[in-house]
Amino acid sequence: MFFYKSALQKDRDYPRGGKNLNKKAIVFGGSGFVGSHVADCLTANGYQVTIFDLIKSQYILPEQRMIIGDILDQKAVLKAVSHQNVVYNFAGIADLDDATTRPVDTVQLNIMGNINIMEAAKDRKICLRKFNICVQPEGWVLPL
Questions:
Q1: Is 136 inside a domain boundary?
Q2: What range defines the domain where residue 55 resides?
Q3: Which of 50, 107, 111, 134 has the largest count of CB atoms under 10 Å?
Q4: In CATH, what number is assigned to the domain containing residue 125?
């Protein structure tokens, strides 16, 4: 899991309605468990959130935007990343059973798809940053 953050952006967490209100974040793989929680956390912190996934998220909030797309489609990924401040990526095949029964699909999605996202972020001048998730008794803690 990784995310990209604009080089000029500060690593500060502002409450809803604060300085993040005009910041845009896209979450690739945002229909899944982790991606949907990250999308909700970003929304709660004032980001305008777009979810990009193969299937519509059953967890999407009314204020979030959904793009149905494939990370193997370079043009779709590049268009989706345009005008974003932050790019989170949780897309790919994570299930080990799927990975062993669909090895070619796994390589294409997990390597080539992720390269498409990294190239799009690079083309839009969004820098690679380290991403960690911490789970504490109170819930998710994400570096925004």
A1: no
A2: 2-131
A3: 50
A4: 3.40.50.720
The low-confidence residues of the chain, meaning pLDDT below 70, are 1-21, 127-144
> Three-class SS string for 72-125?
CCHHHHHHHHCCCCEEEECCCCCCHHHHHHCHHHHHHHHHHHHHHHHHHHHHCC
Give the count of domains, the chain: 1
Rg (CA), the chain: 15
Residue 54 CB neighbours (<10 A): 13
Write the pLDDT tens digit of every residue in 32-44. 988 999 999 999 9
The closest alpha carbon to 88, from 137, 50, 45, belongs to 50
Helices 74-81, 114-123: axis angle to 10 degrees equals 40
pLDDT in the model for residue 99:
87
